[in-house]
Amino acid sequence: MARKTTRKVSRTAAESAVRTLLRYAGDDPHREGLRDTPKRIVNAYSDWYSGYSIDPGAYLRRTFEEVEGYDEMVVLRDISFESFCEHHMAAHHRPAHVGYLPSDRVVGISKLARVVDGYARRFQVQEKLTAQIAGCINEVLKPRGVGVASTPFTNA
């Protein structure tokens, strides 16, 4: 199913929403200590959720085709990443493990971690995250097999 494109709100609207949340929490967004908080929060969101503005598959498109006879699984374990639960917007830290069985080309091992990070920087449920990573690897590299696992969500 194709992902529906959502129009991003302006930075001004995002900062206004942060001020609203500060008021909701019971504080004054115009007091000195909070005056620049909306700007800082929007900057943080730009980094935390940068996965919406990148194509993780692009990391996999630069490959090495000289894999004559290589028939072992390529595995990268304990890829540390942070993701955000789409139900509570809470941060979760945990490792992922990615492996694939190359067919006719391989990718630099660090690219697997970048793919994980690219999808992790979106609101996710764990099952969707691992499926997206596996689907991306499968689509771009066309391996003989791919596996992705991560430990269950735990609060940071």
What does this structure look like?
- This protein is α+β, with helices and mostly antiparallel strands and 156 residues long.
- Helix content is 35%, strand content 22%.
- The chain contains four helices and six strands.
- The chain has helices spanning 11-25, 37-48, 109-120, 126-141, and strands at 63-64, 74-85, 91-101, 106-107, 123-124, 145-150.
- Strands 5-2-3-6 form a four-stranded mixed sheet. Strands 1-4 form a two-stranded antiparallel sheet.
- The longest helix has 16 residues, at 126-141.
- The protein is elongated, with a radius of gyration of 19 Å.
Name the structural class.
Answer: alpha+beta
Q: What is the string of helix and strand elements?
A: HHEEEEHEHE
- Please indicate the percent range of residues in DSSP E strands (runs of 2 or more): 15-25%
The number of helical runs is 4
Biggest β-sheet: count, sense, barrel?
Answer: 4 strands, mixed
